[in-house]
Amino acid sequence: MKINKLLILAAFPLMCLTVQAQGGPKKDYTPKQGDITMAATVGYNSYASVNALPGTLANYEAAVLSTNWEDKKLMVGFEAGWFFKDLWKLNLGGGLNFTNNPGYSAVPGTMDEAASAEDNMGEIPGYRAVADASSFSYNVFVGVDRYFEMKKVPNLMWYTGLRVGMAYAQNQMKYDESEIMGKSVGETWNLRGSITFGVDYFVLPAMYIGAQIDPFSYTYNMTSYKPRRV
After folding, report:
1. What is the percent of the chain where pLDDT is above 70?
2. How far, CA to CA in Å, does 146 sit from each of 8, 38, 83?
């Protein structure tokens, strides 16, 4: 009985608020000239990534990086907007990521590669060194959006706009081994322009949610590998 009573009391105010909201006039939460917005973003294809090549190869081949957005992971970023005019917003955003993996020296074993499996029975295998690796990437962009009101759905607005941005990534590895000289470094950067479409729903005066797609975009990429940089 006590649990049921608590549930009824908790649901009753919600039902009252819903009826009142439906019966009363719709409030306008859409931004106006001079308003500033801040948003956390999660998306694909908005950053650059690269992996350094091992420093023990005799020949190297540089391949074009994939531009398929399905091959890329999600990246969290931020976006700030300023409505310099009603229905017109200026955007600035980006994201940053840094990772570091500590390395370990090689551990020699007692196994003889020339001996048979029977002779190596009970021997200890050797372990190669683990690379001291780090990765750093960021992206920045600017853009402008033109918003359009949807009169049949209050506080829901769709927009179209332009974006111009840059992304950079670096990955480096260094093994504590005598046969590898220096560190291996991979670097890449992108210049990107796109036409974007999206929709925002302004739930409260200080809160909104939205979705955005870039159906048309162009990316210029430059990638370099230095497998034995001293």
Report:
1. 75
2. 45, 17, 10
Distance CA 207, CA 225 (A): 44
pTM of the shown model:
0.71
Residues 6+ apart with CB under 8 A from 46: 75, 77, 95, 139, 141, 165, 167
Residue that the structure tokens 């420093």 belong to: 55
Cα angle 204, 208, 214 (rounded to 5 degrees) comes to 160
For the chain, how far is it from start to end, CA to CA, in angstroms?
A: 76
Q: When comparing pLDDT for 96 and 63, which is higher?
A: 96
